[in-house]
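FORM 7B: Structural annotation worksheet

SECTION A. Query
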Amino acid sequence: MKKYLLEILLGAGAAGLVLGLLAGLDLTPLLIGAAFAALIKLVVDGRAPLGRRFEAMGGVGGSAGSLPQITFADVGGQEAAKRELMEALAFLKSDSLSKKLGIRPLKGILLVGPPGTGKTLMAKAAANYTDSAFISASGSQFVEMYAGVGAQRIRRLFKQAEALAQQQKKGSCVVFVDEIDVLGAKRGSHQGHMEYDQTLNEFLVQLDGIDSEREIKTLVVAATNRADILDPALLRPGRFDRIVRVDLPDKAGRLRILEIHAQGRPLAPEVDLEKAAQETYGFSGAHLENVLNEAAINALRRSSEVITPADIREAIEKVMLGEKLDRTPTSAERRRIAYHEAGHAVIAEQNRPGAVSSITITSRGNALGYIRQSPTADQYLQTQDELVAAIQVCVAGAVSEELFLGQRSTGAVGDIRQATEIAKQMVYAGLSPLGIVGAELPTNLLHDAVTDIIRRQEQIVRGCLEEHGRKVQAVAEHLLQHDSISGDQFRGFLAQLAS
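SECTION B. Predicted structure
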Protein backbone atom coordinates (compact mmCIF):
# COMPACT_ATOMS: atom_id res chain seq x y z
CA MET A 1 0.00 0.00 0.00
CA LYS A 2 2.84 2.42 0.90
CA LYS A 3 4.55 1.64 -2.39
CA TYR A 4 1.42 2.51 -4.41
CA LEU A 5 0.84 5.67 -2.33
CA LEU A 6 4.40 6.85 -3.05
CA GLU A 7 3.90 6.23 -6.77
CA ILE A 8 0.61 8.15 -6.74
CA LEU A 9 2.24 11.11 -4.95
CA LEU A 10 5.19 11.17 -7.35
CA GLY A 11 2.86 11.03 -10.33
CA ALA A 12 0.68 13.79 -8.94
CA GLY A 13 3.73 15.95 -8.25
CA ALA A 14 5.08 15.46 -11.77
CA ALA A 15 1.66 16.28 -13.23
CA GLY A 16 1.45 19.43 -11.08
CA LEU A 17 4.85 20.57 -12.32
CA VAL A 18 3.80 20.07 -15.98
CA LEU A 19 0.54 21.97 -15.44
CA GLY A 20 2.39 24.81 -13.69
CA LEU A 21 4.83 25.11 -16.57
CA LEU A 22 1.98 25.13 -19.12
CA ALA A 23 0.22 27.83 -17.07
CA GLY A 24 3.39 29.98 -17.18
CA LEU A 25 4.11 29.86 -13.43
CA ASP A 26 7.72 30.49 -12.23
CA LEU A 27 8.65 27.21 -10.54
CA THR A 28 12.34 28.11 -10.01
CA PRO A 29 12.08 28.67 -6.20
CA LEU A 30 10.21 25.38 -5.81
CA LEU A 31 12.78 23.47 -7.86
CA ILE A 32 15.71 25.04 -5.97
CA GLY A 33 14.07 24.21 -2.64
CA ALA A 34 13.44 20.62 -3.71
CA ALA A 35 17.03 20.23 -4.94
CA PHE A 36 18.37 21.63 -1.68
CA ALA A 37 16.18 19.27 0.37
CA ALA A 38 17.35 16.31 -1.73
CA LEU A 39 20.98 17.35 -1.28
CA ILE A 40 20.57 17.55 2.51
CA LYS A 41 19.00 14.09 2.48
CA LEU A 42 21.91 12.67 0.45
CA VAL A 43 24.45 14.28 2.80
CA VAL A 44 22.76 12.83 5.87
CA ASP A 45 22.65 9.42 4.20
CA GLY A 46 26.34 9.80 3.21
CA ARG A 47 25.67 9.53 -0.52
CA ALA A 48 26.31 13.11 -1.63
CA PRO A 49 29.40 13.70 -3.80
CA LEU A 50 30.57 16.52 -1.48
CA GLY A 51 30.13 14.44 1.67
CA ARG A 52 31.96 11.22 2.52
CA ARG A 53 29.91 8.07 2.18
CA PHE A 54 29.46 6.34 5.51
CA GLU A 55 30.30 2.66 5.23
CA ALA A 56 30.79 0.54 8.31
CA MET A 57 32.85 -2.58 7.73
CA GLY A 58 31.50 -5.79 9.15
CA GLY A 59 31.06 -9.48 8.88
CA VAL A 60 32.97 -11.79 11.19
CA GLY A 61 31.05 -14.92 10.43
CA GLY A 62 30.39 -17.34 7.65
CA SER A 63 28.63 -14.90 5.37
CA ALA A 64 29.94 -13.89 1.99
CA GLY A 65 32.38 -11.02 2.10
CA SER A 66 33.13 -11.60 5.76
CA LEU A 67 36.31 -10.49 7.43
CA PRO A 68 39.09 -13.05 7.94
CA GLN A 69 38.61 -15.32 10.94
CA ILE A 70 40.85 -14.02 13.72
CA THR A 71 41.16 -15.67 17.12
CA PHE A 72 43.03 -14.75 20.27
CA ALA A 73 45.68 -17.31 19.23
CA ASP A 74 46.52 -14.97 16.33
CA VAL A 75 47.25 -12.09 18.73
CA GLY A 76 50.74 -12.44 20.19
CA GLY A 77 52.54 -10.55 22.92
CA GLN A 78 49.43 -9.41 24.79
CA GLU A 79 48.72 -12.24 27.22
CA ALA A 80 47.65 -10.00 30.13
CA ALA A 81 45.41 -7.88 27.89
CA LYS A 82 43.85 -10.99 26.33
CA ARG A 83 43.08 -12.50 29.73
CA GLU A 84 41.44 -9.29 30.92
CA LEU A 85 39.43 -8.94 27.72
CA MET A 86 38.25 -12.56 27.79
CA GLU A 87 37.11 -12.12 31.39
CA ALA A 88 35.10 -9.07 30.31
CA LEU A 89 33.51 -11.09 27.50
CA ALA A 90 32.37 -13.89 29.81
CA PHE A 91 28.83 -12.48 30.04
CA LEU A 92 28.33 -13.00 26.29
CA LYS A 93 29.78 -16.51 26.46
CA SER A 94 27.88 -17.62 29.60
CA ASP A 95 24.71 -15.56 29.54
CA SER A 96 22.61 -17.84 31.77
CA LEU A 97 25.28 -18.09 34.47
CA SER A 98 25.84 -14.34 34.35
CA LYS A 99 22.14 -13.72 35.00
CA LYS A 100 22.11 -16.23 37.84
CA LEU A 101 25.02 -14.42 39.52
CA GLY A 102 23.34 -11.05 39.00
CA ILE A 103 26.12 -9.72 36.76
CA ARG A 104 25.33 -6.49 34.95
CA PRO A 105 26.51 -7.02 31.36
CA LEU A 106 29.25 -4.72 30.22
CA LYS A 107 28.29 -2.18 27.59
CA GLY A 108 31.71 -0.98 26.51
CA ILE A 109 35.37 -2.01 26.62
CA LEU A 110 38.10 0.53 25.85
CA LEU A 111 41.42 -0.70 24.45
CA VAL A 112 44.20 1.77 25.20
CA GLY A 113 47.76 1.55 23.91
CA PRO A 114 50.34 2.77 21.40
CA PRO A 115 49.71 2.38 17.65
CA GLY A 116 50.37 -1.03 16.14
CA THR A 117 49.96 -3.08 19.33
CA GLY A 118 46.99 -5.14 18.09
CA LYS A 119 43.91 -3.31 19.37
CA THR A 120 41.90 -3.89 16.18
CA LEU A 121 42.96 -7.54 16.07
CA MET A 122 41.79 -8.01 19.64
CA ALA A 123 38.38 -6.51 18.84
CA LYS A 124 37.95 -8.93 15.92
CA ALA A 125 39.12 -11.82 18.08
CA ALA A 126 36.56 -10.79 20.72
CA ALA A 127 33.77 -11.06 18.14
CA ASN A 128 35.02 -14.51 17.11
CA TYR A 129 35.46 -15.62 20.75
CA THR A 130 31.84 -14.74 21.58
CA ASP A 131 30.45 -15.90 18.20
CA SER A 132 29.16 -12.40 17.54
CA ALA A 133 28.61 -10.34 14.43
CA PHE A 134 31.30 -7.72 13.97
CA ILE A 135 30.94 -4.22 12.57
CA SER A 136 33.58 -1.49 12.70
CA ALA A 137 33.98 2.18 11.96
CA SER A 138 36.56 4.90 12.53
CA GLY A 139 35.93 7.95 14.70
CA SER A 140 36.69 10.23 11.76
CA GLN A 141 33.73 8.79 9.81
CA PHE A 142 31.32 10.57 12.16
CA VAL A 143 32.82 14.03 11.75
CA GLU A 144 31.25 16.19 9.04
CA MET A 145 30.70 19.90 8.54
CA TYR A 146 26.93 19.46 8.29
CA ALA A 147 24.88 19.63 11.49
CA GLY A 148 23.30 16.37 12.58
CA VAL A 149 25.19 14.11 10.16
CA GLY A 150 27.50 12.61 12.81
CA ALA A 151 24.64 11.84 15.20
CA GLN A 152 22.62 10.26 12.42
CA ARG A 153 25.57 8.05 11.46
CA ILE A 154 25.96 6.93 15.08
CA ARG A 155 22.33 5.79 15.11
CA ARG A 156 22.77 4.03 11.79
CA LEU A 157 25.88 2.20 13.01
CA PHE A 158 24.02 0.60 15.93
CA LYS A 159 21.05 -0.28 13.70
CA GLN A 160 23.39 -1.88 11.16
CA ALA A 161 25.03 -3.91 13.94
CA GLU A 162 21.71 -5.42 15.04
CA ALA A 163 20.66 -6.02 11.43
CA LEU A 164 23.96 -7.79 10.69
CA ALA A 165 23.55 -10.02 13.76
CA GLN A 166 20.03 -10.96 12.65
CA GLN A 167 21.24 -11.60 9.11
CA GLN A 168 24.00 -13.89 10.38
CA LYS A 169 21.60 -15.48 12.93
CA LYS A 170 23.78 -14.55 15.89
CA GLY A 171 22.62 -13.55 19.35
CA SER A 172 25.15 -10.76 19.85
CA CYS A 173 27.13 -8.17 17.97
CA VAL A 174 30.39 -6.32 18.62
CA VAL A 175 30.57 -2.70 17.49
CA PHE A 176 34.20 -1.60 17.11
CA VAL A 177 35.04 2.12 16.95
CA ASP A 178 38.69 2.81 16.13
CA GLU A 179 40.33 6.14 17.03
CA ILE A 180 37.42 7.02 19.30
CA ASP A 181 39.32 10.09 20.54
CA VAL A 182 38.22 11.85 17.30
CA LEU A 183 34.55 11.79 18.27
CA GLY A 184 34.97 11.29 22.03
CA ALA A 185 37.20 14.24 22.95
CA LYS A 186 36.18 16.34 25.95
CA ARG A 187 33.11 18.40 25.17
CA GLY A 188 33.88 22.06 24.71
CA SER A 189 37.39 21.40 23.38
CA HIS A 190 36.25 22.12 19.80
CA GLN A 191 35.59 25.84 20.05
CA GLY A 192 32.92 27.18 17.74
CA HIS A 193 31.93 23.73 16.43
CA MET A 194 29.12 22.11 18.44
CA GLU A 195 28.73 19.31 15.89
CA TYR A 196 31.44 17.31 17.68
CA ASP A 197 29.55 17.58 20.97
CA GLN A 198 26.26 16.57 19.36
CA THR A 199 27.88 13.49 17.86
CA LEU A 200 29.37 12.50 21.22
CA ASN A 201 26.04 13.09 22.95
CA GLU A 202 24.32 10.74 20.52
CA PHE A 203 27.03 8.12 21.08
CA LEU A 204 26.46 8.35 24.84
CA VAL A 205 22.70 7.98 24.30
CA GLN A 206 23.25 4.85 22.21
CA LEU A 207 25.53 3.40 24.90
CA ASP A 208 22.92 4.06 27.56
CA GLY A 209 20.28 2.47 25.34
CA ILE A 210 22.04 -0.90 25.21
CA ASP A 211 19.72 -3.30 27.06
CA SER A 212 20.66 -6.82 28.13
CA GLU A 213 17.01 -7.88 27.74
CA ARG A 214 17.06 -7.27 23.99
CA GLU A 215 17.08 -10.21 21.63
CA ILE A 216 20.42 -9.03 20.18
CA LYS A 217 23.04 -8.19 22.80
CA THR A 218 25.42 -5.38 21.85
CA LEU A 219 28.96 -4.77 23.09
CA VAL A 220 30.91 -1.67 22.09
CA VAL A 221 34.69 -2.04 21.83
CA ALA A 222 36.69 1.12 21.18
CA ALA A 223 40.39 1.79 20.68
CA THR A 224 42.56 4.84 21.23
CA ASN A 225 46.12 5.89 21.99
CA ARG A 226 44.92 9.19 23.50
CA ALA A 227 42.80 8.18 26.49
CA ASP A 228 43.87 11.39 28.26
CA ILE A 229 41.69 13.56 25.99
CA LEU A 230 38.50 11.48 26.21
CA ASP A 231 35.39 12.99 27.80
CA PRO A 232 34.90 11.74 31.40
CA ALA A 233 31.28 10.85 30.57
CA LEU A 234 32.58 8.10 28.25
CA LEU A 235 34.71 6.48 30.93
CA ARG A 236 32.23 6.31 33.78
CA PRO A 237 30.84 2.90 34.89
CA GLY A 238 27.85 1.89 32.82
CA ARG A 239 29.41 3.03 29.58
CA PHE A 240 33.02 1.94 29.11
CA ASP A 241 33.13 -0.31 32.13
CA ARG A 242 36.49 -1.90 31.42
CA ILE A 243 39.71 -0.25 30.26
CA VAL A 244 42.24 -2.76 28.89
CA ARG A 245 45.86 -1.70 28.45
CA VAL A 246 47.42 -3.00 25.22
CA ASP A 247 51.07 -2.07 25.72
CA LEU A 248 54.22 -2.68 23.71
CA PRO A 249 55.22 -6.35 24.01
CA ASP A 250 58.09 -7.56 26.18
CA LYS A 251 60.80 -9.90 24.89
CA ALA A 252 58.67 -13.05 25.26
CA GLY A 253 55.79 -11.27 23.55
CA ARG A 254 57.99 -10.10 20.69
CA LEU A 255 59.25 -13.65 20.20
CA ARG A 256 55.67 -14.94 20.03
CA ILE A 257 54.72 -12.26 17.49
CA LEU A 258 57.75 -13.08 15.34
CA GLU A 259 56.85 -16.78 15.47
CA ILE A 260 53.29 -16.01 14.35
CA HIS A 261 54.44 -13.89 11.40
CA ALA A 262 57.24 -16.33 10.52
CA GLN A 263 54.71 -19.05 9.74
CA GLY A 264 54.75 -19.77 6.03
CA ARG A 265 58.01 -17.90 5.50
CA PRO A 266 61.14 -19.93 4.59
CA LEU A 267 63.70 -19.11 7.29
CA ALA A 268 67.28 -20.33 7.07
CA PRO A 269 68.20 -22.84 9.82
CA GLU A 270 70.63 -20.37 11.40
CA VAL A 271 67.93 -17.69 11.91
CA ASP A 272 67.51 -17.03 15.63
CA LEU A 273 64.13 -15.39 16.29
CA GLU A 274 64.93 -15.11 20.00
CA LYS A 275 67.94 -12.95 19.19
CA ALA A 276 65.77 -10.85 16.86
CA ALA A 277 63.26 -10.42 19.69
CA GLN A 278 66.05 -9.24 21.98
CA GLU A 279 67.28 -6.68 19.45
CA THR A 280 63.82 -5.19 18.80
CA TYR A 281 63.12 -3.65 22.20
CA GLY A 282 60.37 -1.05 21.91
CA PHE A 283 58.92 -2.51 18.68
CA SER A 284 55.15 -2.94 18.37
CA GLY A 285 53.49 -5.91 16.70
CA ALA A 286 53.14 -3.89 13.49
CA HIS A 287 56.89 -3.10 13.54
CA LEU A 288 57.74 -6.78 14.02
CA GLU A 289 55.51 -7.85 11.15
CA ASN A 290 57.23 -5.21 9.02
CA VAL A 291 60.67 -6.53 10.03
CA LEU A 292 59.90 -10.00 8.64
CA ASN A 293 58.26 -8.52 5.55
CA GLU A 294 61.31 -6.34 4.86
CA ALA A 295 63.58 -9.34 5.49
CA ALA A 296 61.64 -11.30 2.86
CA ILE A 297 61.99 -8.37 0.44
CA ASN A 298 65.76 -8.37 1.04
CA ALA A 299 65.85 -12.09 0.24
CA LEU A 300 63.88 -11.44 -2.95
CA ARG A 301 66.39 -8.77 -4.02
CA ARG A 302 69.16 -11.36 -3.68
CA SER A 303 67.05 -13.98 -5.53
CA SER A 304 67.35 -16.16 -2.44
CA GLU A 305 64.75 -18.78 -1.55
CA VAL A 306 65.33 -18.43 2.21
CA ILE A 307 65.52 -15.54 4.69
CA THR A 308 68.92 -15.32 6.38
CA PRO A 309 70.04 -13.65 9.64
CA ALA A 310 71.66 -10.89 7.54
CA ASP A 311 68.26 -10.16 5.95
CA ILE A 312 66.65 -9.85 9.37
CA ARG A 313 69.48 -7.66 10.69
CA GLU A 314 69.16 -5.37 7.67
CA ALA A 315 65.37 -5.24 8.11
CA ILE A 316 65.65 -4.27 11.79
CA GLU A 317 67.95 -1.38 10.92
CA LYS A 318 65.65 -0.26 8.10
CA VAL A 319 62.60 -0.23 10.40
CA MET A 320 64.58 1.63 13.07
CA LEU A 321 66.32 4.23 10.91
CA GLY A 322 64.86 4.12 7.41
CA GLU A 323 66.17 3.17 3.98
CA LYS A 324 69.79 3.54 2.94
CA LEU A 325 70.49 6.84 1.20
CA ASP A 326 72.55 7.73 -1.83
CA ARG A 327 74.56 10.36 0.04
CA THR A 328 78.22 10.28 -0.90
CA PRO A 329 80.33 11.99 1.79
CA THR A 330 83.81 13.15 0.86
CA SER A 331 86.76 11.01 1.92
CA ALA A 332 87.45 13.43 4.81
CA GLU A 333 83.83 13.19 5.97
CA ARG A 334 83.86 9.39 5.76
CA ARG A 335 86.98 9.32 7.90
CA ARG A 336 85.36 11.61 10.48
CA ILE A 337 82.20 9.48 10.53
CA ALA A 338 84.29 6.31 10.97
CA TYR A 339 86.17 7.69 13.98
CA HIS A 340 82.95 9.08 15.41
CA GLU A 341 81.17 5.70 15.29
CA ALA A 342 84.29 3.83 16.45
CA GLY A 343 84.37 6.03 19.55
CA HIS A 344 80.71 5.25 20.27
CA ALA A 345 81.28 1.52 19.81
CA VAL A 346 84.41 1.20 21.96
CA ILE A 347 82.84 3.05 24.90
CA ALA A 348 79.57 1.09 24.58
CA GLU A 349 81.47 -2.19 24.63
CA GLN A 350 83.62 -1.09 27.57
CA ASN A 351 80.55 -0.16 29.62
CA ARG A 352 78.48 -3.21 28.74
CA PRO A 353 80.22 -6.11 26.98
CA GLY A 354 78.08 -7.54 24.20
CA ALA A 355 76.07 -4.35 23.80
CA VAL A 356 76.98 -3.52 20.19
CA SER A 357 74.86 -5.21 17.50
CA SER A 358 76.26 -3.47 14.45
CA ILE A 359 78.32 -0.46 13.33
CA THR A 360 78.12 1.25 9.96
CA ILE A 361 79.19 4.43 8.22
CA THR A 362 76.53 4.04 5.53
CA SER A 363 73.93 6.83 5.55
CA ARG A 364 70.45 5.74 6.55
CA GLY A 365 67.53 8.05 7.39
CA ASN A 366 68.87 11.16 9.09
CA ALA A 367 72.06 9.43 10.24
CA LEU A 368 75.37 9.58 8.34
CA GLY A 369 76.51 6.58 10.38
CA TYR A 370 75.35 4.78 13.52
CA ILE A 371 75.92 1.99 15.98
CA ARG A 372 73.04 -0.19 17.08
CA GLN A 373 72.96 -1.54 20.61
CA SER A 374 70.77 -4.38 21.86
CA PRO A 375 69.67 -4.58 25.49
CA THR A 376 70.42 -7.75 27.41
CA ALA A 377 66.87 -7.68 28.79
CA ASP A 378 63.81 -5.42 28.78
CA GLN A 379 64.33 -2.68 31.36
CA TYR A 380 61.67 -0.57 33.06
CA LEU A 381 64.00 1.16 35.53
CA GLN A 382 67.50 2.60 35.13
CA THR A 383 70.08 3.17 37.81
CA GLN A 384 72.42 6.14 38.07
CA ASP A 385 75.33 4.08 36.72
CA GLU A 386 73.29 3.00 33.68
CA LEU A 387 72.24 6.57 32.89
CA VAL A 388 75.83 7.77 33.26
CA ALA A 389 77.00 5.00 30.91
CA ALA A 390 74.41 6.09 28.33
CA ILE A 391 75.71 9.67 28.49
CA GLN A 392 79.25 8.42 28.00
CA VAL A 393 78.23 6.58 24.82
CA CYS A 394 76.51 9.73 23.55
CA VAL A 395 79.52 12.01 23.98
CA ALA A 396 82.10 9.42 22.87
CA GLY A 397 81.66 10.23 19.17
CA ALA A 398 82.47 13.93 19.56
CA VAL A 399 85.39 13.24 21.92
CA SER A 400 86.77 10.66 19.49
CA GLU A 401 86.68 13.20 16.64
CA GLU A 402 88.52 15.74 18.79
CA LEU A 403 91.19 13.27 19.95
CA PHE A 404 92.02 11.66 16.61
CA LEU A 405 91.08 14.35 14.07
CA GLY A 406 91.87 17.53 15.98
CA GLN A 407 88.38 19.03 16.28
CA ARG A 408 84.70 18.23 16.63
CA SER A 409 81.96 18.62 14.01
CA THR A 410 78.23 19.24 13.77
CA GLY A 411 77.69 15.49 13.47
CA ALA A 412 77.43 15.30 17.26
CA VAL A 413 74.37 17.57 17.53
CA GLY A 414 71.94 14.68 17.92
CA ASP A 415 74.22 12.92 20.42
CA ILE A 416 74.52 16.03 22.59
CA ARG A 417 70.76 16.54 22.51
CA GLN A 418 70.25 12.95 23.68
CA ALA A 419 72.88 13.31 26.42
CA THR A 420 71.16 16.49 27.62
CA GLU A 421 67.79 14.72 27.91
CA ILE A 422 69.36 11.89 29.91
CA ALA A 423 71.09 14.38 32.20
CA LYS A 424 67.77 16.19 32.77
CA GLN A 425 66.18 12.86 33.62
CA MET A 426 68.91 12.32 36.23
CA VAL A 427 68.31 15.75 37.74
CA TYR A 428 64.55 15.31 38.11
CA ALA A 429 65.00 11.76 39.41
CA GLY A 430 67.19 13.08 42.23
CA LEU A 431 70.32 11.39 40.86
CA SER A 432 72.42 14.56 40.46
CA PRO A 433 74.52 16.43 43.08
CA LEU A 434 71.44 18.66 43.61
CA GLY A 435 69.62 15.74 45.19
CA ILE A 436 65.83 15.75 45.16
CA VAL A 437 64.46 18.80 43.32
CA GLY A 438 61.00 20.10 42.52
CA ALA A 439 59.37 20.38 39.12
CA GLU A 440 59.81 24.17 39.17
CA LEU A 441 63.61 24.06 39.30
CA PRO A 442 65.09 27.41 38.17
CA THR A 443 66.43 27.28 34.62
CA ASN A 444 69.94 28.39 35.59
CA LEU A 445 70.27 25.64 38.22
CA LEU A 446 69.03 23.02 35.75
CA HIS A 447 71.48 24.25 33.10
CA ASP A 448 74.42 24.18 35.51
CA ALA A 449 73.54 20.68 36.78
CA VAL A 450 73.14 19.25 33.27
CA THR A 451 76.34 20.87 32.04
CA ASP A 452 78.27 19.57 35.04
CA ILE A 453 77.04 15.99 34.51
CA ILE A 454 77.94 15.95 30.82
CA ARG A 455 81.38 17.56 31.30
CA ARG A 456 82.29 15.02 33.98
CA GLN A 457 81.44 12.18 31.62
CA GLU A 458 83.39 13.81 28.80
CA GLN A 459 86.52 13.76 30.96
CA ILE A 460 86.02 10.09 31.78
CA VAL A 461 85.41 9.22 28.12
CA ARG A 462 88.47 11.17 27.04
CA GLY A 463 90.70 9.16 29.38
CA CYS A 464 89.17 5.86 28.26
CA LEU A 465 89.58 6.63 24.55
CA GLU A 466 93.19 7.72 25.07
CA GLU A 467 93.81 4.40 26.81
CA HIS A 468 92.14 2.39 24.03
CA GLY A 469 93.20 4.64 21.14
CA ARG A 470 94.70 1.73 19.23
CA LYS A 471 91.32 -0.03 19.21
CA VAL A 472 89.47 3.07 18.05
CA GLN A 473 91.91 3.62 15.18
CA ALA A 474 91.79 -0.03 14.10
CA VAL A 475 87.98 -0.13 14.13
CA ALA A 476 87.76 3.17 12.22
CA GLU A 477 90.19 1.99 9.53
CA HIS A 478 88.27 -1.29 9.22
CA LEU A 479 85.02 0.67 8.73
CA LEU A 480 86.62 2.82 6.04
CA GLN A 481 87.43 -0.35 4.12
CA HIS A 482 84.22 -2.37 4.73
CA ASP A 483 81.57 0.29 5.57
CA SER A 484 79.95 -1.85 8.28
CA ILE A 485 80.68 -4.54 10.82
CA SER A 486 78.40 -6.77 12.91
CA GLY A 487 78.58 -6.87 16.68
CA ASP A 488 80.11 -10.36 16.75
CA GLN A 489 82.72 -9.36 14.15
CA PHE A 490 83.47 -6.21 16.16
CA ARG A 491 84.08 -8.19 19.36
CA GLY A 492 86.23 -10.73 17.49
CA PHE A 493 88.22 -7.84 16.03
CA LEU A 494 88.80 -6.36 19.52
CA ALA A 495 89.86 -9.76 20.85
CA GLN A 496 92.49 -10.07 18.12
CA LEU A 497 93.85 -6.62 18.99
CA ALA A 498 94.04 -7.52 22.68
CA SER A 499 95.97 -10.75 22.03
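SECTION C. Observations
Strands lie at 57-58, 108-112, 133-138, 172-178, 217-224, 240-245, 356-360, 370-373, 484-486. The chain has 19 helices and nine strands.

SECTION D. Sign-off
Analyst initials: ____
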